[in-house]
Structures are given as structure tokens and as C-alpha cells.
Amino acid sequence: MGIFKSFLLRQALKAKMKDVPEAEREKMLALMERNPEFFKKVGEEVQKRVKAGQSEMAATMVVMREHQAELQKLMK
């Protein structure tokens, strides 16, 4: 991943997860950098649900539950 893209991703992550401890944010960023296609797919599914009228939080929870097994594999 390019330096500029990585920087933008870090800034977006900090803004979205400002209440999450720094160590957890870094762990999420490392996961995103290792498997960006998975997180791109999740993001697209969340956006599709938001456009359909669901709140962002509800959409995120549903999509993350749907991909829970894959996410757990990534975290190991």
C-alpha cells in the first residue's frame, strides 16, 4: 500500500474510531493493510445498506456479523 494511501487510511481510522484505544486502532489498521479487499467488500456492503435506509451503525453490525468467521480468521 502506498505511503499516501496508508496515511489517509490512518487519518480516517482515527476519525471514525476516536474513542477506541490507540493499540486497538493499530491492530485494525494492520488487518486492513494485510487484507484490503476484505475490508473494501465489507465497506461496500455497509454503504449499500446505508443507502437502503439503515443507520450506519446497524448496517455495520449486520455486515460484520455476516463476515464474523472470516474476520476471526484474519485476527489470528
Structural notes for this entry:
With 76 residues, the protein is mainly α. The chain has two domains: 1-34; 36-76. It is 82% helix and 0% strand. The protein contains five helices and no strands. Helix 2 packs across helix 3 and helix 3 crosses helix 4 (56-66). The longest helix has 16 residues, at 36-51.
What radius of gyration results from the CA coordinates?
13 Å
Total domain modules: 2
Share of residues in strands: under 5%
The profile of the biggest β sheet is: none
Provide the residue-averaged pLDDT.
Answer: 85
Q: What distance separates the N and C termini?
A: 21 Å
Count of separate DSSP helical elements: 5
- The helix/strand series, from N terminus to C terminus, equals HHHHH
Helix content: over 70%
**Class per helix and strand makeup:** mainly alpha
- Globally, the shape reads globular
Count every beta strand, where a strand is a DSSP E run of 2 or more residues. Answer: 0
Q: Which regions contain 5 or more consecutive residues with pLDDT less than 50? A: none
Summarize the structure.
The protein has 76 residues and is mostly helical. The protein has helices spanning 3-16, 22-34, 36-51, 56-66, 68-75.
Q: Keywords, please?
A:
76 residues; mainly alpha; 82% helix; globular
Could you give the topology of this structure?
Blueprint: H1 3-16, H2 22-34, H3 36-51, H4 56-66, H5 68-75
Helix pairs in contact: 2-3, 3-4
